[in-house]
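Design job #97: recover the sequence.
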């Protein structure tokens, strides 16, 4: 029996497991999007079937754009997410470069200290964070959310990027120093382009928790001017009556940016994950 024949059952089994996991992961997303195009009777009558001419209805989307200021909520989420990603990638890459490139007293301990941020949830410090924001006058501002999400994303970003930056050739960096390049120029022009796949990985892993978060917007920025998409969707949740058409439509629209980001960065995301696995 050839090696290819012996490995065929193993390959089929691996693909079957992956396909099963993919189906389980996509099922809730497809269910939400599918039911967002139904009437209320269609949602409760046949939630697992696609919309039919009888059940098809856009009342959820018309309610979202008519009753709630969804465009404003979407803009707030976009501003918070983009700004947080920018600071996480910038400061995370700088710190990762420093930890991987320079040897100083406490280098290892600094890395372990930053790794604690991955293991300890930032929500444990919600009371202290709220007190700090109140004292700083940042409650009900997008700045408060950006600061919290930046702090939340930095430990993972530093941990991943520092490991990738250790693989960048020392000869390349030393050649830049011999040519008279500053450390900033070496960082931005030589190192960063080589770790783009890892930065795409960090961007995706950082964006999803920020975009989907309800905890900190509800506590730090619950005013109408600073509501995010997830918090704005709560508008359609009532104590006695819940507008499921509008909620499903709002959630479907909130899914779009994550899907678009994945389509744009999917190649670099896969490269970043696989190169990290091979390392």
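Job complete. Output follows.
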């Amino acid at each position: 029996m050839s090696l290819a024949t012996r490995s065929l059952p193993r390959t089929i089994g691996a693909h079957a497991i992956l396909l099963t996991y993919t189906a389980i992961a996509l099922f809730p997303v497809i269910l939400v999007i599918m039911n967002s195009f139904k009437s209320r009777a269609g949602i409760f009558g046949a939630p697992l079937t696609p919309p039919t001419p009888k059940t098809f209805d856009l009342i959820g989307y018309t309610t979202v754009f008519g009753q709630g200021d969804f465009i404003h909520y979407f803009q707030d989420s976009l501003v918070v997410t983009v700004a947080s990603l920018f600071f996480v990638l910038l400061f995370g890459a700088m710190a990762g470069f420093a930890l991987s490139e320079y040897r100083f007293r406490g280098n290892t301990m600094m890395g372990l200290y930053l790794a604690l941020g991955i293991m300890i949830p930032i929500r444990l410090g919600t009371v202290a964070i709220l007190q700090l924001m109140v004292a700083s006058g940042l409650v009900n501002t997008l700045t408060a959310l950006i600061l919290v999400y930046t702090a939340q994303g930095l430990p993972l970003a530093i941990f991943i990027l520092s490991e990738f930056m250790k693989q960048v050739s020392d000869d390349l960096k030393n050649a830049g120093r011999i040519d008279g390049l500053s450390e900033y120029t070496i960082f931005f022009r030589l190192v960063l382009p080589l770790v783009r796949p890892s930065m795409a990985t960090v961007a995706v892993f950082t964006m999803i928790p920020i975009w989907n978060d309800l905890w900190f917007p509800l506590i730090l920025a619950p005013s109408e001017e600073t509501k995010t998409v997830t918090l704005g969707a709560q508008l359609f949740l009532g104590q006695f009556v819940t507008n499921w058409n509008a909620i499903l439509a709002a959630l479907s629209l909130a899914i779009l940016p994550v899907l678009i980001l994945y389509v744009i960065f999917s190649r670099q995301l896969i490269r970043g994950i696989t190169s990290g696995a091979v390392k």
